[in-house]
């Protein structure tokens, strides 16, 4: 999709004009019949006016279904009671999800008659419903969690011991620090003034020493550390780059941050990036502006990943960043006038370790704003969720993009994108996606308006939970799919440690198509997966143990600069088909 305005072919604009002509009230409740948007009811005069557009929608939907695509969708829960605006997979195979406390009442009651009583709350001062859950992947069950302050548009990361540390939010939660320890009965614990700055739309990045750096937030052109480096010192550090990238729509919120292989931070905001030495508070390098100059950060909301790190034993490890989608300059402001510009259909890729780095531009099958980018165990990237026009923000997106796209970074330029099978559920503003240990992608959320609104809106509040299974999970690949036998899940490993990985493969093994990968599960919200990181461990010793049983030796990353301490998922990948993962802890 290009960047033009969609006014000319969006039937909802004609509905408004049609309603004005007929002087009849027009409900804006809509039904989604798979991929066809059917507004109803419509007057006879309006029906005639809209007939060409409705037929076009039906034609496009039919064409989309006929095109098929790879992968499979499965509905797990018709309702989890809350909107999964934020998600984190933990090392006990539970996923913590939460939305916000000033939405009103959710569809899930807190247990044992518990209620949140907050006289500073803007909507419901006594709330006996949950705004966070813990989802059990294996059992497909969930339980309510009690979040005490407003977590709306917050950030977080899992620490070295597996505790989820979640920071900031809105109103009474903007300086709060919340922790959740993985255990069957654990709940949120909160420190209301745990931060030095107000963190709303900030980004957290794990550091080699196990601490977190928290960067930015609305009107916060600074950063801080958690835990603080020194309790007695000032923990707020000015970062002029954030004020320099602030524009009329901000477009510098939830900055894309990655720990580079040299220990510095790659920080992207709006349409450009720096390499930042946080230890000495200085900019090491300024990268070129993305060609075209359009913004990619919230609310223009593209997405970004650090591509897989390879050749970890080499002296100079290369690092590449990929940024896809977003909204053109001015798109956010135009949504307030009822004009929804087409989302950006480009990706920008840059090798951030090159002496003279340049952006290489690629074109996706269609434009996408508010998409999520999920790194898969085999190193490919799934681009999922989002809209074809508009921007992030209340009622600001249109034309849901229902088909994910697979990006294969090792393919030649021009042949890296593959369209996948479409979902029947629009995932707009406040939708999320995370990889699970079994290789599926968990998809949830979508709430492009204030409150839990299920009627009289274009895109109702979405409480359904589903998974997308990439094609590597198809039964036809079972014979080449590895099964890990050793090491045991939850093993504790050291940096630079040689480990033996034993596995089974039913088919004839191709040693040249064998990889071991480790992946750090991210904290995901608002189209960015914080701390998402995949490293490739190349096998250097290989043994045949018995029939269909093999053993290879790999070396864990040599330092916490390459892989910050914490829990990782280990996969054996054979002919691009990954095993189920096992958990390890690297310290």
TrEMBL record:
SUPFAM superfamilies from the UniProt entry: E set domains, Galactose oxidase, central domain
Coiled-coil ranges per UniProt: none
Alphabetical list of Gene3D superfamilies matching this protein: Galactose oxidase/kelch, beta-propeller, Immunoglobulins
Keyword tRNA-binding among UniProt keywords: no
Residues covered by the Glyoxal oxidase N-terminal domain: 85-472
Localisation: Secreted
Main location, first listed in the record: secreted
One Pfam family it belongs to: Glyoxal_oxid_N
GO molecular function, one term: oxidoreductase activity
Annotated InterPro entries: Gal_Oxase/kelch_b-propeller (IPR011043), Gal_Oxidase_central_sf (IPR037293), Glyoxal_oxidase_N (IPR009880), GO-like_E_set (IPR015202), Ig-like_fold (IPR013783), Ig_E-set (IPR014756)
Keywords, comma-separated and alphabetical: Oxidoreductase, Secreted, Signal
GO-annotated cellular components: extracellular space
Ranges for domain Galactose oxidase-like Early set: 481-586
Name the record gives this protein: Aldehyde oxidase GLOX
Organism encoding this protein: Lupinus luteus (European yellow lupine)
């Amino acid at each position: 999709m290009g960047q033009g305005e969609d006014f000319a072919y969006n039937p909802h604009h004609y509905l408004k004009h049609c309603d004005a002509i007929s002087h009849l009230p027009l409900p804006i409740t809509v039904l989604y019949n798979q991929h066809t948007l059917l507004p109803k009811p419509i007057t006879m005069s309006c029906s005639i006016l809209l007939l060409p557009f409705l037929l076009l929608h039906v034609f496009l939907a039919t064409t989309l279904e006929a095109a098929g695509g790879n992968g499979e969708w499965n509905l797990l829960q018709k309702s989890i009671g809350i909107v999964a605006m934020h998600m984190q997979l933990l090392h006990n195979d539970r996923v913590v999800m939460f939305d916000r406390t000033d939405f009103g009442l959710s569809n899930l009651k807190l247990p044992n008659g518990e209620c949140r009583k907050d006289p500073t709350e803007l909507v419901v001062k006594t709330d006996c419903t949950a705004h966070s859950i813990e989802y059990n992947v294996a059992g497909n069950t969930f339980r309510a969690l009690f979040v005490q302050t407003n977590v709306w548009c917050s950030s977080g990361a899992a620490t070295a011991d597996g505790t989820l540390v979640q920071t900031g939010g809105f109103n009474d939660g903007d300086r709060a620090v919340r922790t959740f320890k993985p255990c069957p009965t654990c709940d949120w614990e909160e420190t209301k003034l745990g931060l030095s700055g107000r963190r709303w739309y900030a980004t957290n990045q794990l550091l080699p020493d196990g601490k977190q750096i928290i960067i930015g937030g609305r009107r916060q052109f600074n950063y801080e550390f958690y835990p603080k480096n020194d309790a007695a010192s000032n923990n707020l550090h000015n970062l002029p780059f954030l004020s320099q990238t602030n524009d009329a729509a901000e477009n510098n919120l939830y900055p894309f941050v990655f720990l580079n292989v040299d220990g510095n931070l790659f920080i992207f905001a709006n349409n450009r990036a720096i390499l930042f030495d946080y230890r000495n508070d200085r900019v090491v390098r300024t990268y070129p502006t993305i060609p075209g100059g359009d913004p990619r950060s919230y609310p223009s909301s593209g997405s970004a990943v650090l591509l897989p790190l390879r050749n970890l034993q080499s002296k100079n490890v290369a690092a590449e960043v990929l940024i896809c989608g977003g909204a053109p300059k001015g798109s956010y402001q135009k949504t307030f006038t009822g004009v929804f510009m087409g989302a950006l259909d480009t990706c920008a890729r840059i090798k951030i370790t090159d002496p003279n780095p340049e952006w290489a531009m690629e074109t996706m099958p269609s434009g996408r704003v508010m998409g999520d980018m999920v790194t898969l165990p085999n190193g490919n990237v799934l681009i999922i969720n989002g809209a074809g026009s508009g921007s992030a923000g209340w009622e600001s997106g249109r034309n849901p993009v229902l088909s994910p796209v697979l990006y294969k970074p090792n393919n030649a330029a021009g042949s890296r994108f593959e369209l996948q099978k479409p979902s029947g559920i629009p995932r707009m503003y406040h939708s999320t996606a995370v990889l699970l240990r079994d290789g599926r992608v968990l998809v949830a959320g979508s709430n492009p308006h204030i409150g839990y609104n299920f009627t009289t809106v274009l895109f109702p509040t979405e409480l359904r939970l589903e998974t997308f299974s990439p094609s590597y999970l198809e039964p036809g690949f079972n014979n080449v799919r590895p099964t890990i036998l050793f090491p045991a899940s939850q093993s504790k490993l050291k940096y630079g440690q040689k480990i033996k990985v034993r596995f089974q493969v039913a088919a004839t093994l191709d040693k040249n198509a064998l990889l071991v990968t480790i992946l750090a599960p991210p904290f995901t919200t608002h189209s960015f997966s914080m701390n998402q990181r995949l490293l490739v461990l190349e096998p250097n010793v290989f043994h045949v143990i018995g029939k269909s049983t093999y053993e290879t030796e790999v070396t864990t990353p040599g330092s916490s600069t390459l892989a910050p301490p914490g829990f990782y998922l280990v996969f054996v990948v054979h002919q691009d088909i990954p095993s189920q993962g096992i958990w390890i802890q690297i310290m």
